Amino acid sequence: MKGLKALIVVAALLAGLSAPAHAILTIEITQGVEGGLPIAVVPFGSSAKALPPQDIGAVVAADLARSGRFTPLEAKDFVSRPTEDRQVVFKDWRIAKAEALVIGAVKPAGSGQWQVEFRLYDVFKEKQLAGYSYTVASDRLRAVAHQISDLVYEKLTGEPGVFSTRVAYITREKARRGFTYKLQVADADGYNPVTVLSSSEPLMSPAWSPDGTRLAYVSFETRRPVLYMQNIVSGARTKVAEFNGINSAPAWSPDGTRLALTLSRDGNPEIYVLKLADKVLTRLTTHPAIDTEPAWSPDGRELVFTSDRGGKPQIYRIQADGGSAERVTFEGEYNARASYAPDGRTLTLISGRGGRYHAALLHLSTAVLQTLTDTPLDESPSFAPNGRLILYATERAGRGVLASVSADGRVRQLLKLQEGDVREPAWSPFNRSTP
Amino acid sequence: MHHKLLLSLIAVAALSLGACATTKTETPEIDDQSVGAEAAGAGTEGAAEGQALDAGGDLLSKRRVNFEYDSSAIDDAGRAIVEAHAAYLVNNKNIRVVLEGHADERGTREYNLALGERRAQSVERMFKLLGVSADRIKTVSYGEEKPIAMDHDQSAWALNRRVEILY
pLDDT digit string (tens) for A326-362? Predict the structure, then answer.
């Protein structure tokens, strides 16, 4: 056997390392939508003596535009630029055809802190819909901007926004020898990427704990697929499963107490559930075929998984305490890697036919399978925590990129790195600290 | 698919009986573990017809068994390679072998991880039938994580669907 090369695996603390600038995911809206709600986000006021390090208004406007549900008006068309309540003249905004208005100001609050104020108005009712003040350090200004975006989104659409959430993903870059693989976590808009783990061997299948503090993933750092769990705040990690064969496909139960996973320790891949408190392992499937890619229903009562027990990979459903599996997909020759929408009514999955693999939606009540993309090499689709978007990996010009599509198929975006490949996106749960 | 695999395994089992009988003769231990490693295309350049080449040695230079899409069945070309390595391993009992299963990039990553394992196990089964003891064989799957051809087309995918015989 050839000599084993030394493997360098570094677990980085979240607070510490951040990726170089070229490693930031940039977002390009590839298909917008007509008829988004026209909204005016006035540049936030600031004092000339102390300019805040973030343009809060610009971050909010970009967030809202990316959602596809708003059309922010061009700031150059604004007749007035109010930064305080008493300066607002609603007539100006009716003429500009804005239906909603966001104003605000950022002021130094001493000892490196900033005070951010913002107000949201209904232009036609001439009424304030929301108003908040935050005092934060410089490095939290961008997070405050996302919180403001979430509040605006929720007030105007009635649904929670996902601007304060994060996305975990795997990158692959050419190294001097072979490749460097990284597990990274970035804000939902691609900013602030942090490397959670870096390895010269492949990394796979990041999965968020429901409280957003931990990631489970597969690492080949010992030259075989081993399952780990890592606290992304402290960087501390633990080995979850290192049996013979495959240890992979982690999926947290909605209550965070159990982890579904795939083990082939008995000869072929089966679905297991690991109780995290006492490490008790329960085998859910018993079939000589491939069983893998478990995903929990939002109520935690059942799981779907991929199995080729019928000859080709299809989606099956099983109760969380075991029993017999029931086939869910019948249309198409290849259906795999399903996960539930937050409301439990649809699954997003990869559907293959004629050698092309598309992200798709399966409506569970009608069994209608709806293809969402026209790209042939899609992988790893999952819902945003509010169910409005599906994020997946695909290939563009020979490189791995991420893409998102709104659940209604109307808004599309591409998220890519300047160099290297990015894949296996996993959207974090809601940020619980958001007011 | 499963029937085809079963049939080919029976065929291999039958063949292996013959193979074992003829390869029982003691051969000196070969210390050179680089036998044929990466020597792809050996003897093709201007190779005149009738050049004496040891058939077994030629096959030993091939360390990759390729597969059809979503299949772990070993075809005739693959079987010849596996048989040559099995014969070598039977005669060199101190050597341990790692069978690394891989898949092409199409379809999902976790399913492909399982598919890579199934391919490695399929070569492992053939090795065992041919007399290589189980405790000398290790299988590992990398799924679609370690392609050798980076393009996104049929010829790259054909190369990437493979089991690597490493020792």
Answer: 999 999 999 999 999 999 999 999 999 988 999 999 9
Q: Are residues A282 and A416 in the same domain?
A: yes
Are the Cβ atoms of B111 and A220 closer than 8 angstroms? no
Among B4, B31, B111, most A C-beta atoms within 10 A, so best to mutate, is B111
Take residue A61 and report the two structure tokens written for it.
């406007």
Do A51 and A100 fall into the same domain? yes
DSSP A294-343: EEE-TTSSEEEEEE-TTSS-EEEEEETTEEEEEE---SSSEEEEEEE-TT
- Counting Cβ atoms within 10 Å, is residue A65 exposed (0-12), middle (13-18) or buried (19+)? middle
Same domain, A380 and A289: yes
Number of domains making up chain A: 2
Q: ipTM more than 0.85? A: yes
| Residues A310 and A405 grouped into a single domain | yes
Structure tokens at A372: 């969402």
- Partners of residue A246 in chain B, C-beta under 8 Å: 113-114, 117, 141
pLDDT in tens, B47-80: 444 444 455 568 999 999 999 999 999 999 999 9
- Residue B12 contacts by C-beta under 8 Å, 6 or more apart in sequence? B74, B79, B82, B83, B126, B129, B130
Out of A157, A186, A204, a domain closes at A157
- Model's pTM, two decimal places? 0.85
Could you tell me which of B91, B62, B143 has the C-alpha nearest to residue A225?
B143
How many Å apart are CA A216 and CA A276, to the nearest integer?
12
Instruction: Quickly list DSSP for chain B.
Output: -HHHHHHHHHHHHHHHHHHHHHH-S--PPP--TTTTTT-TTTT-TTPPTT----HHHHHHT--EEE--TT-----HHHHHHHHHHHHHHHH-TT--EEEEEE--SSS-HHHHHHHHHHHHHHHHHHHHHTT--GGGEEEEEEETSS-S--SSSHHHHHHHSEEEEE-
Residue A80 lies in a domain: yes
Helix (H) or strand (E) holding A350: strand A346-353
Domain that holds residue A129: 34-157
Of A75 and A316, the structure prediction assigns the larger pLDDT to: A316
CATH number of residue A292's parent domain: 2.120.10.30
Which among B70, B139, B167 has CB closest to A1? Answer: B167
